[in-house]
Design goal:
mainly alpha, globular, 6 helices, two-stranded antiparallel sheet
Length: about 190
């Protein structure tokens, strides 16, 4: 699908803004963030080279704004975790994408759950590697201690992927026209 460079740049800016601003605005709510869904969306709607640029730039920019950049080695695990989200989504986006159908919403929700589990498993492993003596007991301890955060993160991802990610994706696919086709039915909306 050929797109103009104006459309590409508008999409890049939109995805970046979703991740950056969402992270700043939701900063007081740990593990409730939009960076994960923005990393996912970047892979769904942008060419692969732009996906990685947008993902890393929104994380670095928000970390600089929040004063986290360079403050700890765990950033290596969090940054690589978000890049892994983008990479994995790029690989499986043909299986995820679809039109305005319930199945597509379910795929977005399931993607949020799977990607969040993988991200949290990876970053908790980072906490173990960087902060604990390397024993099996400590590895198990880290994952047990991380369970409350993981559960909250899973819930937030389910919400953001379905209530933010899916509508963003639909707007990207179909634009904001006065007429929308849903499963061979035309829905018209006239503005006064």
């Amino acid at each position: 699908m050929e797109r103009s460079s104006m459309s590409l740049y508008a999409t890049v800016i939109s995805v970046f803004t979703l991740g950056f601003v969402g992270r700043i605005v939701l900063h007081d709510y740990p593990n409730f963030e939009t960076v994960m869904v923005a990393s996912f969306l970047s892979a769904m709607v942008l060419p692969r080279n732009w996906t990685f640029i947008v993902t890393i730039s929104m994380i670095v920019a928000s970390d600089i704004y929040l004063g986290y950049f360079g403050g700890t080695k765990i950033l290596l695990f969090t940054y690589s975790g978000f890049l892994f989200v983008s990479l994995l989504t790029s690989k499986f986006k043909n299986s995820i994408q679809g039109g305005i159908k319930p199945g597509t919403v379910y795929k977005f929700g399931a993607s949020g759950i799977i990607l969040t589990l993988m991200y949290d498993i990876w970053t908790n492993f980072g906490v173990f590697v960087l902060s604990y003596e390397h024993t099996l007991d400590n590895l198990i301890l880290v994952y047990i201690l991380g369970l409350p955060f993981m559960l909250y993160h899973l819930l937030s991802s389910l919400v953001t992927f379905t209530l933010i990610g899916f509508p963003f994706y639909v707007i990207y696919l179909f634009g904001m026209e006065d007429e929308l086709v849903i499963d061979d039915e035309t829905v018209s909306h006239e503005q006064n």
